[in-house]
């Protein structure tokens, strides 16, 4: 299945305010006040750069993590709230886009109407599940649920063909689990066992809210856990999922049917509206076999229990408050350590951004995006691409043959900066201000059909995989492009009044990060056209693996929380991109300075400000619970190690801050790939 490579792990928008506010300018790109002068930069650069910020920015009660990414997302969400509040006023002057986003937002914030309707909106879907009497009708029911916005058992969508990246094909992938990862179902330590008990208790409470008796609720929750555990047995772990060679299996539909003959795949494909399918990518064949076991070995009643849970879980955001609260109690409080549920309006801004991303994103771009930010970012991309070309040519471990292919790939990278070329048309999506559940179903069905309609067609490289207000960026190896939404082209990543050193250390390092993803342990397996093809000589591949293993060992030595270590294999791609990206941005800064040393600012040289800017975009605080969870499933290292792990490998940093050998920020031997 398609997996884009992000600069950070999926961030949910969060705000400290609880009422409409005006859009405010984000914090400056470099904050001298954030620096903790009681700590040596050479002993712990992250604490030096972020210590005061962390002390003065505790985690808000409605968050499990709070960092400078989140602070910017806070400002973006204020802008979105302002847009949605205005659009939600029902006047004849509203444009069609304003009607869609405004009425969806109004329906979401109208808590009184949601409570009055209670379970009535979801009951037809629940009754449809209850009407299942024999397994031969399972495919029909799964079709119905897919169209309603729930995805039980597996994920089905379109994706570029990894061996022919100009064409879209169908893809089946693992899914259907309520816990974050397969290993949560099998780890034998007491904490994991206790978490599973709490999860089953949560599912039991959901069935109780649906009206089941305590005995019946327990029976149904146990059935859900049994089904999910069986699915987890066939699921790949997060490290395996990172290997594209292990997650691409283009098979005829007949082979899929052989893997799971007791599910009517052709009927499912036709029912959800997919075009005729001859072949598809079965990302994890063992998972499909596990799904077959679930169908064969589970009773009809147990399957209905699982499907009911899945539906309610997937639709919980648009259900009455008691369901929202119960979901938060487990996924927020227990799993992530969040103390309070975010206010309704914040969640409604997110819902509109998720359901109608281009409609809301278009209005966001109109309000916030500046041409200067795009121009300067594009200029910086060109400079950093030049730095990567020089870096490739200067490598002493790569042969000329592979260097040539690497440069071909680099020059083929497509840069998408700031704004979409084409916006989606939501005119066919019915949105009303008095039917939140129906609105969500209509938006989900639109998106499902939009994705499936791509099967068999050429890849549209103008599309984006995230909304424009998102504070993030990504590299897509199948399209060989880097993507920077409008949401990130603001302080602390880029600011016109900041010196080059800060801008290169912030947005420049993020640009370098995304470019380096094209040549990390995943990205390097794809060629210039996005095809999964080995363009490396065996000797060069071996040399790469040797250098990458240095990162694996380095980051595996870091402690995420208590006794939990960072997974160096899971985070290898992001660590490679961080180290390469900062180095490339530093090279580009030196080129921009042209050998001149500008005067110090805030008491720091240009080189020092560069590294401080990189460090300060990762200033953050996390709950222990979310730190533990992300150590298991997140391919990104914690902010502390994204900073210290990089600078300890860079002689340029050690020179800038005068760090002698033997200090913690001077690693021997240093790790480097790019």
Q: Can you put this structure into words, describing what you see?
A:
By secondary structure, the chain is α+β, with helices and mostly antiparallel strands. It has 3 domains: 109 residues, no CATH class; 201 residues, Neutral endopeptidase, domain 2; 262 residues, Collagenase (Catalytic Domain). It is 52% helix and 8% strand. The chain has 26 helices and 12 strands. Strand 3 and strand 4 form a beta hairpin. Helix 8 crosses helix 13, helix 20 crosses helix 22 and helix 22 crosses helix 25. The protein is globular and about 75 Å long. About 3% of the residues have low confidence.
Which helices and strands, and how do they pair?
Layout: E1 5-6, H1 45-56, E2 65-67, H2 68-87, H3 96-109, H4 111-117, H5 123-130, H6 138-148, E3 154-161, E4 164-174, H7 190-209, H8 214-234, H9 238-241, E5 250-252, H10 253-259, H11 265-271, E6 279-282, H12 285-297, H13 300-315, H14 321-336, H15 344-355, H16 357-368, H17 371-394, H18 400-412, E7 414-418, H19 436-452, E8 474-476, E9 481-485, H20 500-517, H21 538-556, E10 559-561, E11 564-565, H22 572-593, H23 606-616, E12 620-622, H24 624-633, H25 639-647, H26 651-656
Parallel strand pairs: 4-6, 7-9
Antiparallel strand pairs: 1-8, 2-12, 3-4, 5-6, 8-9, 10-11
Helix pairs in contact: 2-3, 2-15, 2-16, 3-15, 5-13, 6-11, 7-8, 7-14, 8-12, 8-13, 15-16, 17-18, 17-20, 17-22, 20-22, 20-23, 22-25
């Amino acid at each position: 299945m398609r997996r884009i490579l992000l600069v950070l792990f999926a961030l949910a928008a969060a705000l400290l305010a609880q009422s409409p506010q005006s859009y405010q300018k984000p914090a400056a790109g470099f904050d001298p006040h954030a620096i903790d002068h009681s700590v040596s930069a050479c002993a712990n650069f992250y604490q030096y750069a972020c210590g005061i910020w962390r002390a003065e920015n505790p985690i808000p009660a409605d968050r499990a993590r709070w960092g400078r990414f989140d602070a910017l997302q806070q400002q973006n969400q204020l802008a979105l709230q302002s847009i949605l509040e205005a659009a939600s006023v029902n006047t004849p002057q509203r444009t069609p886009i304003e009607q869609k986003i405004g009425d969806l937002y109004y329906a979401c914030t109208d808590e009184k109407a949601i409570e009055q309707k209670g379970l009535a909106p979801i009951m037809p879907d629940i009754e449809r599940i209850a009407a299942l009497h024999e397994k031969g009708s399972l495919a029909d029911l799964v079709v119905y649920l897919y169209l309603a916005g729930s995805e039980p058992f597996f994920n089905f969508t379109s994706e570029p063909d990894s061996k022919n990246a100009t064409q879209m094909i169908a893809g089946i992938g693992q899914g259907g689990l309520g816990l974050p990862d397969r290993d949560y179902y099998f780890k034998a330590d007491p904490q994991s066992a206790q978490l599973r008990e709490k999860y089953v208790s949560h599912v039991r409470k959901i069935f109780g809210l649906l009206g089941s008796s305590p005995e019946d609720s327990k029976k149904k929750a146990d059935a859900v856990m049994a089904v999910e555990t069986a699915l987890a047995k066939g699921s790949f772990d997060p490290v395996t999922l990172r290997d594209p060679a292990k997650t691409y299996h283009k098979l005829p539909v007949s082979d899929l049917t052989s893997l799971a003959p007791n599910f009517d795949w052709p009927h499912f494909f036709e029912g959800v509206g997919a075009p005729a399918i001859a072949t598809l990518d079965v990302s994890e064949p063992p998972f499909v076999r596990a799904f077959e076991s679930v169908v064969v070995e589970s009773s009809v009643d147990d399957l209905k229990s699982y499907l009911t849970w899945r539906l309610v879980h997937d639709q919980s955001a648009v259900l009455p408050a008691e369901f929202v609260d119960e979901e938060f109690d487990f996924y927020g409080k227990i799993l992530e350590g969040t103390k309070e549920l975010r206010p309704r309006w914040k969640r409604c801004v997110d819902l509109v951004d998720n359901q109608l991303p281009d409609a809301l994103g278009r209005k966001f771009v109109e309000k916030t995006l500046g041409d200067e930010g795009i121009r300067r970012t594009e200029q910086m991309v060109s400079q950093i691409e030049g730095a990567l070309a020089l870096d490739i040519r200067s490598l002493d471990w790569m042969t000329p043959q592979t260097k040539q292919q690497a440069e071909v790939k680099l020059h083929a990278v497509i840069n998408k900066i700031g704004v979409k070329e084409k916006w989606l048309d939501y005119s066919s999506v019915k949105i009303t201000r008095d039917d939140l559940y129906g609105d969500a179903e209509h938006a989900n069905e639109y998106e499902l059909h939009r994705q499936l309609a791509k099967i068999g067609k050429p890849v549209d490289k103008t599309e984006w995989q995230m909304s424009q207000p998102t504070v993030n960026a990504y590299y897509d190896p199948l399209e060989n492009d880097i993507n920077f939404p409008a949401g990130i082209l603001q302080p602390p990543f880029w600011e016109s009044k900041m010196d080059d050193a800060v801008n290169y250390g912030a947005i420049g390092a993020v640009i370098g990060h995304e470019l380096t993803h094209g040549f990390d342990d995943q990205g390097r397996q794809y060629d210039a056209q996005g095809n999964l093809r080995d363009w490396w000589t065996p000797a060069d591949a071996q040399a790469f693996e040797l250098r990458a293993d240095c990162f694996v060992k380095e980051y595996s030595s870091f402690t995420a929380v208590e006794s939990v270590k960072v997974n160096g294999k899971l985070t290898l791609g992001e660590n490679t991109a961080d180290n390469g990206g900062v180095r490339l941005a530093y090279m580009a800064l030196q080129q921009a300075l042209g050998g001149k040393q500008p005067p110090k600012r805030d008491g720091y040289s240009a080189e020092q400000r560069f590294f401080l800017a990189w460090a300060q975009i990762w200033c953050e605080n996390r709950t222990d619970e979310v730190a533990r969870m992300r150590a298991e499933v997140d391919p990104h290292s914690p902010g502390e190690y994204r900073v210290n792990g990089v600078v300890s490998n860079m002689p340029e940093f050690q020179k800038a801050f005068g760090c002698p050998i033997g200090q913690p920020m001077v690693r021997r031997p240093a790790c480097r790939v790019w």
